[in-house]
């Protein structure tokens, strides 16, 4: 095995939370940190790729939560970096719902169906709340599940695409309801490089600092009383006082990383209770545009009798005029199904749907791009989704450190899980918790040295102190460290 000089902190994962955590640590004087990234780039679930001559975002693609009283920190970073973005108006999508014969549902029918879906979801939430508290005195109103193609389509948009829950969402109530599509040749990931430049050595847009190590696939974390050892797939190991684990909740659930000793039961059980969402944006390029290209038609919906079947579409004309690119979003079961089949099958299915909407004479797509987040062993999904009715203790247990191992990522953000700004703020929160533990440990060590010196000095000055008293004082030096290494589940609240 190859070994390396011990670090104060090792950060596993160079996504948004990993980079933001490292930045805060460096700003607070922790320069002997080390970032281990499994892939050949930074960014995590933020990833750009060139398609059809333009830069498209395979993962996170929007800055959500803009225009409110409080400023979204990711929006601030984007403004500071001059990132190219476009406002996305989803409100028109419900009026661009196509049936399988290519007709658009009348606006009145679409509005009624949408309201019915919202009312049904709210009632279901109330029913779940009543059941969770054991309230059997009130009669739960039975709601009919969506059944028609338009009801299924709107139900999909309401739950799988537009929001993961019906209750007010902190991102929109705190930061604003506007969402902006990132359409910059430098990519959404440019924000991470700008953050990294502030504490890592870079040149001409490349990170050259040896404290960032790419292609280091962490497979094991061994913890002892004195520190933590991180073992990689290629047989290397790295040692540190603390580890910040910023891998996704999907990776934690997959047991890709082994822990020695194993994670305590309360931790592992909490990890299994968090849902993992899979969100797949499929990109299709055509020789020419055959769909309405105006901003009011940017988003359109396909109503099929199979829920989530190539339902939500977007044209890229606003972001990239003349690119002739369409994007269709799949989630969860449909995402996993498509990931498992050849792209040629996916292209064939998508073309059948498009010809249902726009007629048999439209051209074939000339290219297709299908991301595979579920089958990516370094991601295993797109983002976390806590159930609407959930025990708050589950969240705190997922976030809580285990000894010297701290956990971060969008899944540890209580108010903003599932969002880029959630990952960014989680990294800051976790790094502050690590700094606080480092401070406490230093105070413990300083106190131990003082307690050790005092009885020895007293012994030289006076022979009246008994040997048993001296030994007792020496043993007391170990008590604070033993209490800490026993592990604690308390965690510092985020100061945003």
From TrEMBL:
Residues 16-435 form the Amine oxidase domain. Pathway: Amine and polyamine degradation; spermine degradation. FAD binds at residues 17, 37-38, 218. One of its GO terms (biological process) is polyamine catabolic process. It comes from the Eukaryota. It holds the Pfam family Amino_oxidase. Its cofactor is FAD. GO terms for molecular function: flavin adenine dinucleotide binding; polyamine oxidase activity. Keywords: FAD, Flavoprotein, Oxidoreductase. Transmembrane segments: none annotated. InterPro entries: Amino_oxidase, FAD/NAD-bd_sf, Flavin_amine_oxidase, Flavin_monoamine_oxidase. Belongs to the flavin monoamine oxidase family. This is Amine oxidase domain-containing protein.
């Amino acid at each position: 095995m190859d070994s390396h000089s011990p670090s104060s902190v090792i950060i596993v994962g160079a996504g948004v939370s990993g980079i933001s955590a490292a930045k805060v640590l460096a700003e607070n004087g922790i320069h002997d940190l080390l970032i281990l990234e499994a892939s050949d780039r930074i960014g995590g679930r933020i990833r750009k790729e060139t398609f059809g001559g333009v830069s498209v975002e395979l993962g996170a693609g929007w800055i959500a939560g803009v225009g409110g009283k409080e400023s979204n920190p990711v929006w601030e970073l984007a403004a500071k970096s001059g990132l190219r973005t476009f406002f996305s108006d989803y409100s028109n999508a419900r009026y661009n719902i196509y049936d399988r014969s290519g007709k658009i549902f009348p606006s009145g029918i679409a509005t009624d169906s949408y309201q019915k879906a919202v009312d049904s979801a709210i009632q279901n939430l109330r029913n779940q709340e009543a059941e969770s508290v054991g309230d059997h005195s009130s009669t739960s109103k039975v709601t009919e599940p969506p059944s028609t193609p338009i009801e299924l389509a709107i139900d999909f948009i309401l739950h799988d695409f537009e929001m993961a829950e019906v209750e007010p969402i902190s991102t929109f109530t705190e930061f604003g309801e506007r969402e902006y599509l990132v359409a910059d040749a430098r990519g959404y990931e440019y924000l991470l490089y700008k953050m990294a430049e502030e504490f890592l050595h870079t040149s001409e847009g490349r990170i050259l600092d040896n404290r960032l190590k790419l292609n280091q696939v962490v497979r094991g974390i061994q913890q002892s009383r004195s520190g933590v050892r991180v073992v990689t797939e290629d047989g290397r190991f790295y040692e540190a006082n603390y580890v910040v684990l910023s891998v996704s909740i999907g990776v934690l659930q997959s047991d890709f990383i082994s822990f020695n000793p194993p994670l305590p039961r309360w931790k592992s059980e909490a990890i299994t209770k968090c849902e993992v969402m899979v969100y797949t944006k499929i990109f299709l390029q055509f020789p020419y545009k055959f769909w309405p290209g105006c901003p009011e038609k940017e988003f359109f919906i396909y109503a099929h009798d199979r829920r989530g079947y190539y339902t939500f579409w977007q044209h890229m004309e606003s972001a990239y005029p003349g690119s002739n690119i369409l994007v269709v979003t799949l989630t969860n079961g449909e995402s996993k199904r498509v990931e498992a089949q050849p792209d040629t099958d996916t292209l064939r299915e998508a073309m059948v749907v498009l010809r249902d909407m726009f007629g048999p004479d439209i051209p074939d797509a000339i290219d297709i791009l299908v991301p595979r987040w579920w089958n990516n062993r370094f991601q295993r999904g797109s983002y976390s989704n806590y159930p609407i009715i959930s025990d708050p203790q589950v969240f705190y247990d997922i976030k809580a450190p285990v000894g010297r191992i701290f956990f971060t990522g969008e899944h540890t953000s209580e108010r903003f899980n599932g969002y880029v700004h959630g990952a960014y703020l989680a990294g800051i929160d976790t790094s502050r918790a690590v700094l606080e533990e480092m401070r406490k440990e230093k105070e413990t060590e300083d106190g131990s040295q003082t307690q050790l010196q005092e009885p020895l000095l007293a012994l030289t000055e006076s022979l009246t102190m008994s040997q048993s008293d001296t030994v007792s004082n020496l043993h007391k030096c170990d008590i604070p460290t033993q209490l800490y290494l026993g592990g604690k589940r308390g965690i510092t609240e985020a100061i945003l």
